[in-house]
Protein: PCI domain-containing protein
Organism: Anisodus acutangulus
Amino acid sequence: MRLTMKLRRKLKASILSDFLQYALSAAIFIPPQDRHDNQVDVEMSETEVHSKRLVPELEIYCYLLVLIFLIDQKKYNEAKTCSSESIVRLKNMNSRTSDVLASKLYFYYSLSYELAGDLAEIRGNLLAFYRSATVRHNNLSQETLVNLLLRNYLHYNLYDRAEKNCSKAHQAEALTNGYFCRCLFYQGKIKIIQLEYTDAKDSFLQAAKKGPLTAVGFQIQCNKWAVIVHLLLGEIPERTLFTQKRMEKALRPYFELTNAIRVGDLELFRTVAEKFSSAFSQDKTSNLVIRLGHNVIRTGLRNISASYSLDDAENIVANAIRDGAIDATLDHDNGWLVSKANGDVYSTNEPQIAFDSRIAFCLNMHNEALRALRFPRNLRNKESVAR
């Protein structure tokens, strides 16, 4: 599988045809004029394939190669058909050695339908596959299907269903780092919609740190949502977050958004939100950007309250005082705002709370590191004992 991902860019119709003829010894038709073009049809004769009594893993791998090739050629309807046929063949297979291939096949099965815009059609099938994988104790398939179900629900903004699925799914020790990172990312998206900003921030930060450095797209998505959570919590992200290599262009809208909130300029905030509205819509963060409008007002009030008194917008100022955005009192008789002197923060519980949060994060990272040192189960020996 690792070699396949490396050679994916070099995969051509002629190479794929030769491999399928060699591996399957079946009737595979590729028009001669299309053997060197991107437009290609790959047809496998099922009768000949089954008559040869192929090794199940080899047959699934061939289906997987064809499916990857069709997706890369952007032939999504053909990819849907190929993935559906491969899933039908996969239902009759149940072996430990096919679990890795099955998990990959489930992923591209969902991806083909997502690219074709028909992701809702396979939700019931994914649930059925997950129940079957749970009964058969196929752990890799379980991990993949849990993430695919969460992605399916979140694609259509079904956050309640996603939260229920996440809480009721079988919680087992993660076998792959990719599954764990994706699960953290999806959980963070659920938490942020449920207004649990602190938990969401921890999920996004852990996903970004544990994610592979080569997965730049995943790192960008984690950082985008992490910036939004920081701003919703009233925090300003560090500038180094926006200057990371290969991420500056993608994070530019969020950098300008952060700058507008930092200075408390409501007009600048509206200009940035309108300028990058398409980018926010594509990232599905438009609703969260609207929430940040209140933070801009609070920041502006905090800046004004440090030097001036207010005799207008009494309701807004009272709400800001109640939420802790500014430290002041209202003089209703005289109609102004009286700012309180800045006290010693070390005389309060804020440093203790901050240290407690950091210690908890370090302990959690330490426990995850210890779990990562454990050797995986020897499934082959287990299977031989069972036999």
User: Anything to note?
Assistant: The first helix runs from residue 2 to 6. Confidence is low (pLDDT under 50) at residues 26-52.
